[in-house]
What does this fold into?
Amino acid sequence: MSLSRRGFLGVAGAAAAGAALSPGIRLIELADARSPEEAASALNRWGLLIDATKCSEGCDACVTACNEEHGLTSLGRPQTDAQWIRKVTLKDKQTGRVTTLPMLCMHCAEPPCVDVCPTGASFKRADGIVLVDKHTCIGCRYCMMACPYKARSFIHEDITGQKPYAPRGKGTVESCTLCVHRVDTDRIPACVEACNADGGKALQFGDLNDPNSKIAKRLATEPSTQIRADLNLNTGVRYQGI
It folds into this structure.
């Protein structure tokens, strides 16, 4: 069992305060604390299936929903604006076929961002969701260089009006969290909800480990693709129609 830095400091502070009032405080109370990632279960593997044939070029419902859900705002500088999910355009050089699709953190089973992080700030939960601990991120950006999908952003400016469930901080790196605050309360990510309501129903979210889930059944019976499958990262985000 491990504590996040924030969780440990909070519990340690409470323990110190309690010790002043009650000399007999037991250290077991520290061990009872749990960091958020420990609520995850290895029985689950959360993932996305994206059908590019249903993703229209002019639709940005998923991007808008993500920005609103997490309080991401544009400063008019595309090169440095935070982008947890973005639309990209692919063109087949031989046929000229153009495809648009959303690109985000792939929540890899073998995430390169985690491998290169010197502080352990980049980590993968037991259920496959890859996150960044803002309290231990030192902004070295090694993870950004290691990510084959350019899925991470660096925060250059002071942040105001943060969402309590999506902590952000100047000088740290961030990326798609699969709306972990929603997943942990049995809801679907904001991008999926918006796509199903206002888009082309191109996104399917679910448990890849559950053979009875809709996403697992589709992956078992329909062809799908991993972007940069040659890297053997076993991505949690899969695509159809590309």
